[in-house]
Amino acid sequence: MHVLSINVANAHAITIDGREVLTAIHKRSVNGPVEARPLGLVGDEQADQSVHGGLSKAVYAYPIEHYAFWQTVRAQAGVAGWNDELPHGFMGENLTITGLLESQVCVGDVLRFANCDLAVSEPRFPCFKFNATMGFNQAAKLMAANAWCGFYLSVRVPGPLVAGESFELIPGPRDVGITELFRARRSPQRS
Questions:
Q1: What gap in Å lies between CA 42 and CA 33, rounded to an integer?
Q2: Is 152 in contact with 124 (CB distance < 8 Å)?
Q3: Given pLDDT bands bounded at 50, 70 and 90, which one contains residue 50?
Q4: Domain range holding 149?
Q5: Which residue pairs, CB below 8 angstroms and at least 24 apart, start in 86-90?
Q6: Is residue 191 part of a domain?
Q7: Is the pLDDT of residue 48 over 90?
């Protein structure tokens, strides 16, 4: 298990369905090390802290294993070419990871890095900004159908993170899985 890239963005205005909204979903890979602090990564912003950010949602991780699916459905929707690879951070994640899926983590599990500990706190619920970023209106429904939501992390032990760094999964109480929590809390308004 390791981090392929560390991704950050500044909040900026975009137009979605004729309405101007503030977003920081357009993350881009940066050279590390990047400091993880209690409210997130240095250099990263959250535009709407009612749904992103704060102590329990400081960092968002997404598995690279799902990227091929998204590349294919974007091509099928006609918003991208078949060979258009998605850059790391495209899903809005701070950490593009490999080797750990949503179905393998529970609330309270810890991702232990060399100089930092991040605790799994909850799944990410997609919104209209995700549809706009993906380029088609069914993206959030596809994420919900597959429960390929990624997961938020709180910063237990602040410290630097570096792309390419491996991490260890330290099991927590193992009572509530991310996939199960995502499916249980998903409402018709969110999908």
A1: 10
A2: yes
A3: confident
A4: 2-185
A5: 87/28, 87/29, 88/4, 88/5, 88/7, 88/29, 88/64, 89/5, 89/7, 89/9, 89/26, 89/27, 89/28, 89/29, 90/27, 90/133
A6: no
A7: no
Q: What are the tens digits of pLDDT across the range 97-138?
A: 999 999 999 999 999 999 999 999 999 998 889 999 999 999
Residue 54: CATH number of its domain: 2.40.33.20
Pairing of strands 34-37, 40-41: antiparallel
Burial of 176 (0-12, 13-18, 19+ CB in 10 A): middle
Query: Domains in the chain: how many in total?
Result: 1
DSSP annotation of 106 reads B
- In 3D, which of 79, 89, 103 has the Cα closest to residue 59? 89
Segment 49-70 mean pLDDT? 92
Please state, in angstroms and rounded to a whole number, the distance separating the CA atoms of residues 66 and 191: 18
Quickly tell me which residue has 């209106």 as its tokens: 137
Is residue 161 in a domain? Answer: yes
CA distance 37 to 159: 7
